[in-house]
Structure formats: structure tokens, C-alpha cells
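User: Can you help me understand a structure? I only have the sequence.
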Amino acid sequence: MASIVERIPEMTQMSDISGSAALAICESLLLALNDRKVLPEHEIMGVLKDAASTHALWPAADGNVKFHIAVAKLITDIIAGGNSVRRP
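Assistant: Let's start by predicting it. Here is the structure, written out as C-alpha cells:
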């Protein structure tokens, strides 16, 4: 039987798992807000665009350019894919 330490993913894997969980939760919340007409589609797109812009501009502040550019690209891909709003 493997020890508990052997069964715990490495820290980078834990970050990936946490990030994936957070993304799934946020996308579900955006869908729910739109479905219940709390936020219209254009507002949800605005939230996503603001988040992408923040990361696109952030690299100069902390020097982690590749990370922030990758985050901005992922958010831009989510916008393009329409994953956060239901479309007929």
C-alpha cells in the first residue's frame, strides 16, 4: 500500500487541480447568473474581457510574463468558445 505522501500529487499538479476547479466553478456561476437573468450576456462578456485585460497588462508588474499571457489567452479562448453563456 502506498503511503499518503506518495498518493498526494506534486504541488504543481495541486495548483493545476485547484485552478481547474476554480475555472469550472466560475464558468458554472456565470452560466447560472445568465440563466436567471441576473447578468445579461454582454455583462458576462465584459467581466471576462476585463479579466483577460488585467492579465495581459499584469506581466510588467511582477515579471511572470508567460503565466499572465497564458491566463489572458485562456480567458480569450473561453470568450471565443462561448463557454460561459448559453447560446441558442
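Now, to help you interpret it: Residues 11-35 form the longest helix (25 residues). The mean pLDDT is 83. Let me know which part you'd like to focus on.
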